[in-house]
Structure formats: C-alpha cells, structure tokens
Write a structure and sequence with these properties.
single chain, elongated, four-stranded antiparallel sheet, about 130 residues, 9 strands, alpha+beta
Length: about 130
C-alpha cells in the first residue's frame, strides 16, 4: 500500500515567492533557491512492500525491513527530517537509525504498519518493541 506525504503550506509559499523573484529577473539568486525548494517539496511517498517500508523522496529511496523496526510514533520537534510539517512520525530501526516522515493519513499508516510489524505492541499513539 502506498501512503503519500503531507504538503506543507510554508514550503509552497516559499516556492511561490521564489518564482516571483525569479520572474522579476533575479535569476542567479532565485534559481538555485527555487531548485532546492522544489527538491524539498517533491512529493514523498511511503510504500509498504513484502520486504519492508520503502521511503521515496526526490533524490533518495530507503528500504527499511520490518524486522529491524523498533519504534513507530510521534516525533519530537528537535530533530532533523525529510518532512517539513509539524505532524511527523519517527521510525526507529536498526541499532541507532531513525527517519522522520509525515504521511497524509496517519491512522491508515499506523494501521498498515501494525499489520506488518507483529513484533511491535501498540501503546497509545505508538508501536514499540515488546521488550522496551
């Protein structure tokens, strides 16, 4: 199942502003900024496959095997992210890896991930390892 990401209004506003500056003739400043903003705002998707969770962004594709996931839950505000919205989800996997995402429909994403990660227990708004 494919889950799409939320679109952040602030990134869209910055893109519109950069396009305005670009059209006014300041190509050397607005061009690179517009390129970076478009790469950041490129539609992200999160796909649950038989092998694991595939996170696709503009320039990367990350496969996270379900067995390595130890936590799925709300993210704190002090972390870096692929997602620019405030309503983010942290997925911890491996020994010390994590990724922050923002699916458009959180409930559908959690339901789908709960089905595919039977080693995790539901605790409130989170899925955590049984031994944690």
């Amino acid at each position: 199942m494919t889950h799409h990401s939320k679109v952040d209004v602030y990134i869209l506003a910055a893109i519109v502003l950069a396009i305005g500056v670009f059209l006014l003739g300041d190509y050397w400043i607005a061009g690179p900024i517009l390129l970076i903003l478009l790469l950041c705002a490129y539609p992200q998707s999160y796909e649950t496959t038989p092998k694991g969770l595939v996170v696709r962004t503009a320039l990367t594709k990350v496969l996270i095997p379900y067995q390595t996931i130890s936590y799925i839950g709300p993210a704190s505000e002090d972390s870096g992210t692929f997602s620019f919205t405030a309503d983010r989800i942290r997925i911890q996997y491996g020994l010390a890896s994590d990724i922050l995402i923002a699916p458009a429909n959180r409930n559908a994403f959690f339901t789908d991930m709960a089905k595919r990660t039977p080693h995790l227990m539901k605790r409130g708004q989170k899925l955590t390892a049984a031994f944690a």
